[in-house]
Amino acid sequence: MFSHWLPRVFPAIFLLLIILSPPVFGQTHPDSTDVGDDFRFATLTGVMQVLLDPERQLNIDSASAATLHSQYQDVSNGGKIGFTDAAVWTRFTLASHLSSAQTFLLELDYPLMDRIELYEPDGQASFRKRLGGDAFLFSARDVQVRTNVFTIDLVPGEIKTLYMRLTTNGSIQLPVRLWNQIAFAEYVAQSQLWFGLYFGAIVLLVASAIGGLLFLKSPLFFWYALYLTFYGLLNFTLTGLGFQFIWPGFPLWQDMAPSFFVGVVVITAMIFSSKLLDIAQYSRTFYHLFWLTAVLAAIGVFLSLTGYTGFAKRVSSFSGLVLVPIVMLAAVIAYRGGNLAARYFLIAWGVFLIFVFISGLYYWGVLPHNFVTAYALQLGSVFEVTMLGMALAERVASLNREKEQADQQARGYLTLLNEKLESLVKERTSELEASNQRLEELATHDSLTLLLNHHAVLRALEGVINASERHGQSFCIAIVDVDNFKQINDQFGHQVGDEVLVAIANTLSSSLRTYDIAGRYGGEEFLLILPQTSTDDASDLIDRLRLSVSDLVLNNTGGERITVSAGMMAYEHGVSMDVEALFRCADDALYLAKDRGKDRIEWGSLKSLDRSLKGFADEKGRHKFHCIKE
């Protein structure tokens, strides 16, 4: 594992050692900077001296007084400033060896300075004051470029000592350079080319992230695009290009923008990193650290918007410093947990970590100004955002693979579920059919005898009447009543009475034909429907049934014989009879059978109710009442 990381770690350590090594300027401490005809540019740090004014009470007269000369310190020997509330006075001397008068450009290559006061000797024991910095409109600058540039006129043989007073609520840096105009124009053109390439790459990455969001619909691309956008705006602010091109008329916003964008970048970076690493799955501790850092950055954003820009810059800067180590450690945990995208994350933030610390140490005044320290964030971000894009691509690919696996598992589960569901549906359907059948039986059958109940047998009778009329057929019915059933209940109890009814019902079911219909009309009465049956055949059938009942032997009745009586009625085709009339005639015949001694069969007719008709007995002693058609 260590051999895998060494090729990446050694170059970073080597770079850091170079940066932290003592600066080459300031070793000889020359008293002035010589400016000749062949002069192009020079860094003035080596000849610059610094004086701190904690109370901000000094003016140019007191700061330039000979009594304070001994209190100025060389920049190379401890003049790294960083964050301070003091006013910083600097002085440096220019010695002209020109053959003719020329105008040079004095540049403070630190765009985030709030207020710069440049005091140039006017040749009359006084100073000419000029102002610069973010506290003033961009159009008020001597030279309208992203850094603070002042014009300096030199004549042959002139020795000129200039003073600068610097105040800001952020970090104070002193990268001061003197340029001739041609060299500075070349430098500006070259820097603009590099900045164009850098910000063009950021724009392309944002566009690709938006494309990924539109096509892949992954919220990761949204947070990546948001992070890149604010990171680009932050660098646009830190390099002074924002004040030059976007908000030149709003110096107040230029003062607020650095801490605001740093805070927003930290917030979006935390959200993006949390989602990309899925850190909540691997460590709740780091998940909470992510959100605490985001809250700290949000406080910096709030302070910057409410005017507390000095404190806001410190809070936002601190949140930016702790961002990278927290994300790095979280990436290690996620990688160990199986998140393959974290490996790109480790490389991206590992390299960026070095540059962030370089930038942070530079803004705190620990490291000197040079190209690497001044543009550490931009240098590190080129590599970092590219690797984050690769991490994002890996994460999306991983999510797609997980989605495909989940889809395959889901399809397998769905197939199994469908099979089980089909089996369950069949089982439930069978159970439902059985249940419906039971419900139908409960609705149409008597619970005791299991014969058709009162309503069901009457509906069956209606159906037989309709069928007989359609097909021109006749049929017979019989009402069978248990003789002396009340005495059985009274003597032996209702349970024995129920047993008698069940035994008779079983006898009816076994004695009737398959197409005959039997039902319990009510109490101890049964209604029998005999389709396509003549009166003679019906009499024979019911008589056999009567004899079968009388032959029953029941244990709980004490050997007492059980008998039934029956009233019968024939339905002839062409005679208009309804269920009620047919049943009334059969019921009247039943009463007649009871009156004539029970245990017998009697036939009824339509006129049987008037009791005026005389019956006759057939050869077997059965009495009939003929249907009189009047």
Number of strands: 20
User: What is the arithmetic mean of pLDDT?
Assistant: 81
Proportion of residues in helical segments = 40-55%
Alpha carbon gyration radius: 56 Å
Distance between the amino and carboxyl termini: 118 Å
| Poorly predicted parts | 1-29, 609-630
Q: Helix segment count? A: 17
Name the overall outline.
rod-shaped
Task: Describe the largest sheet.
Answer: 7 strands, mixed
List the helices and strands and how they pair.
Elements: H1 2-20, E1 33-36, E2 41-43, E3 49-53, H2 60-63, E4 73-74, E5 82-83, E6 87-97, E7 102-108, E8 115-121, E9 127-132, E10 148-154, E11 159-167, E12 171-172, E13 176-179, H3 181-216, H4 219-238, H5 241-245, H6 251-277, H7 279-282, H8 284-305, H9 309-336, H10 341-363, H11 371-374, H12 376-444, H13 454-471, E14 475-482, H14 485-492, H15 494-511, E15 517-522, E16 525-531, H16 535-550, E17 564-571, H17 579-595, E18 601-603, E19 616-617, E20 623-624
Parallel strand pairs: 1-6, 17-18
Antiparallel strand pairs: 2-13, 3-4, 3-6, 5-12, 6-11, 7-10, 7-13, 8-9, 8-11, 14-16, 14-17, 15-16, 19-20
